[in-house]
Amino acid sequence: LKLLTTPEAMRDFPRQGTVALVPTMGALHAGHLALVEHARQLADTVVVSIYVNPLQFGPTEDFTRYPRQLDADMQALNGLADAVFAPHTLYDQAETTQVVPPAGLTHCLCGRSRPGHFTGVATVVLKLFQVVQPTVAIFGEKDFQQLVVLQRMVHDLNLPVDIVPHPTAREADGLAMSSRNVYLTTPQEREAARTLSQTLFALKAQAQPGQPLPPLLTHLAQKMLHPSVQLEYLVVVDPHTLAEQHQLTGPARALIAGRVGPVRLIDNIAL
Ligand code: PAF
After folding, report:
1. 20 to 30 A from 182, CA-CA: which of 17, 126, 194, 213?
2. Could you tell me if the CB of 145 is within 6 A of ligand 1?
């Protein structure tokens, strides 16, 4: 497993055949490793990038305390990936050119509380694509809005890469795996966090075609969510446009975001 820490070294890395990239911010868990295993099935060379991208964090967010554990990540990837691209920085100017995805996809859902976040994500992912030059890139469905934004970027900018989504990995109690789950320290926080996915599972079980969704969403948020969860949103959207759906008419995605103590958690499910 080769560790590459500069864009130049990454560009010079000898690759055979097709290349799959798994972009991450490190603190790898079983969900990330499933993405890497998927990548292995899709391409001859597998590259994992590990970079905590400052551009996608707001001024009050957890950039400085985001978990960083490169040694453990390298160990976890040994035998699974061919190279790890973990640059010290990807921005050498105070101000940088940025990729601004369409407002229709970024001003809703997480974009409401995280202005600029998806511009930061799109910018770093385009840079990673330019440096690694992958044939395919694997992204978890856990960050569903991110996935839609990046699929749109690839389409709009005619990028020669296929984006491949991978289903969310879950803990035994249903909690979506996330590097931020390490912030859930007490059993009560953990119990509260679990109720986000339970709410989505109940919604999937109960939503009927044609049924008005807002009353069901309100009912389930009250009934299923732990009282300590500060709900940010629970909505059903069109899986391509992210437009809010008030009735189940075709393919739809339910998304939830909420705070458990200081930890902001997100999850989603196909309906
Ligand atoms: O999903 C993530 O971990 C990040 O947003 C990504 C795609 C690696 C960009 O920094």
Report:
1. 126
2. no
